[in-house]
Amino acid sequence: MDILLIAGLWFDGSAWDDVVPELTALGHRAVPLTLPGQGDGAASATLDDQLAAVLAAVDAAHGRPMVVGHSVAASLAWLAADARPEKVSKVVMIGGFPAADGGTYADHFPIGDGVMPFPGWGPFEGRTPPTWTRRRGPAWPPPPSPSPRRSPGESYA
Fold first, then answer.
1. What pLDDT was estimated at residue 149?
2. Are strands 66-70 and 90-94 parallel, antiparallel or unpaired?
3. Any idea where the domains of the chain sit in the sequence?
4. pLDDT 10s digit of each residue in the chain, 157 long?
5. 80: nearest Cα among 101, 65, 95, 100
6. Pick the CATH number of 2-98 from 1.10.10.10, 3.20.20.70, 3.40.50.720, 3.40.50.1820
7. Which of 66, 99, 132, 140 could form a disulfide with 103 if both were Cys (CB 3.0 to 4.6 A apart)?
8. CA-wise closest residue to 68 among 88, 86, 46
9. Rounded to the nearest 10 degrees, how much is the dihedral formed by the CA atoms of 140, 106, 14, 17?
10. Taking Cα atoms as reference points, which of 59, 68, 87 lies closest to residue 3?
């Protein structure tokens, strides 16, 4: 099975370098994608440009690929499946979820001069830089509390 790998914001296809050999060893064809605006210098890339790149990879895949979206790219994985339901076999979302209909894509990061710059690792480590107080939308959420471990078959409700 072809597995299309879409990394989250600011990451290119090399984010999957450790994953590709593992999937290959399992008999899959792993295809890490580098999207427009992610390491290629295309600062004007839009969500439509990125979706077009994912759809081109879906269309070029052998059979019905699995589309994996990491972090905010979960929205791209879901958009691809929605656009090509007859071609996408499965969607996997790692550390992310699709935006709601009509919702804003990745509105939790500030935009300056039409670009969403990488904010550094602080927000991902639970620290909020003071410059984030000027951005649009709700405040950066605090890190979630760890979920208690559950036994197989135990309800999550």
1. 42
2. parallel
3. 2-98
4. 999 999 987 788 999 999 999 999 999 999 999 999 887 777 788 889 999 999 999 999 999 999 999 988 998 999 999 999 999 999 999 987 776 677 666 666 677 776 666 666 666 666 555 444 434 444 444 344 344 444 444 443 3
5. 65
6. 3.40.50.1820
7. 99
8. 88
9. 70
10. 68
Distance CA(49)–CA(46), nearest Å, equals: 5
Neighbours of 123 (CB within 10 A): 16
- pLDDT, residue 135, reads 40
Residue 154, φ and ψ in degrees, nearest 5? -75, 140
Who contacts 147 (Cβ-Cβ below 8 Å, separation ≥6)? none
pTM greater than 0.85: no
The SS3 call for residue 105 is coil
Cα separation, 99 vs 88, in Å, equals 19
Query: For the range 57-63, what are the long-range contacts, defined as Cβ-Cβ under 8 Å and sequence gap of 24 or more?
Result: 57/4, 57/31, 57/33, 58/4, 58/84, 58/87, 58/88, 59/84, 59/87, 61/2, 61/4, 61/31, 61/87, 62/2, 62/29, 63/1, 63/2, 63/89
